Amino acid sequence: MNAATAHIVTERLQGVLRVEIRRPEKKNALTAAMYGQLADIFQDAAGDKDTRVLLLHGQPGVFTAGNDLGEFLNDPPMNEDAPVFRFLAVFRDFPKPFMAAVTGPAVGIGTTMLLHCDLVYAGEGARFQLPFVGLGLCPEAASSLLLPALVGHARAAEIILLGEPFGAQQAREIGLVNAVLPDAGLLDHALLQARKLAAQPPAAVRLSKQLLKRSQTALIAAAMEEEDRQFKVRLVSPEAKEAFGAFLDKRPPDFSQFS
Q1: Structural domain count of the chain
Q2: Whole-prediction pTM
Q3: Which of 133, 154, 185, 250 has the smallest C-beta neighbourhood within 10 Å, fewest atoms?
Q4: Residue at 254 is within a domain
Q5: Residue at 238 is within a domain
Q6: How confident is the model at residue 1 (pLDDT cuts 50, 70, 90)?
Q7: How far is 1 from 3, CA to CA, in rounded Å?
Q8: Which residues contact 76 (CB under 8 A, 6 or more apart)?
Q9: Where residue 23 sits, what CATH number does that domain have?
């Protein structure tokens, strides 16, 4: 068993593919290997007739801290075949219901991927954050399109430009999550809802999802393409290097020399 396999665990039961991010010692920070495995899981599930719903969750008390910043700094993904970009593409195009159960921190892609989910349930202790700007980066996963569409420009600007964390109740208020539940019972509730969905007529479910998303499909693809292009530029920018270095050194970043 390699590290990525140990950090991503799956189980399929009653038509529900449960995908668990399991790297608690690093707050479930995602490496390139983990992104690659997640992309493969989504791709395989899309064509697997026994999988009707995919439910993604983390460890108790943590969904994911987002990207492994040390790896991003040392080996930034710079081409379309990079695992992170493959993962973004496969969950964007996933044809079956995509659900998430979130407890604890959901940082960066841990929040932006929720904009693509069909159902999201959050624990009372969930905390969401888009820290891209503070890291010298830009939004990804079409969040520059989907978040303003969900919450309006003013609130989206506050969430993206300031990058401050917000809690589960605010996430419910703005429509990012369907419901907020006690942390201890969250996964059981999400699994119950997933099984209900898996029991529905599968072709009708897939078609309904496609129709619900049809007005934004081309816009999402275009937004993600432009974000990916800009993200690659930002990853090797002096601002990002300063931000990442400061994070790893546990010091405040200094952006005073940039204009």
Answers
A1: 1
A2: 0.95
A3: 250
A4: no
A5: no
A6: very low
A7: 7
A8: 232, 235, 236
A9: 3.90.226.10
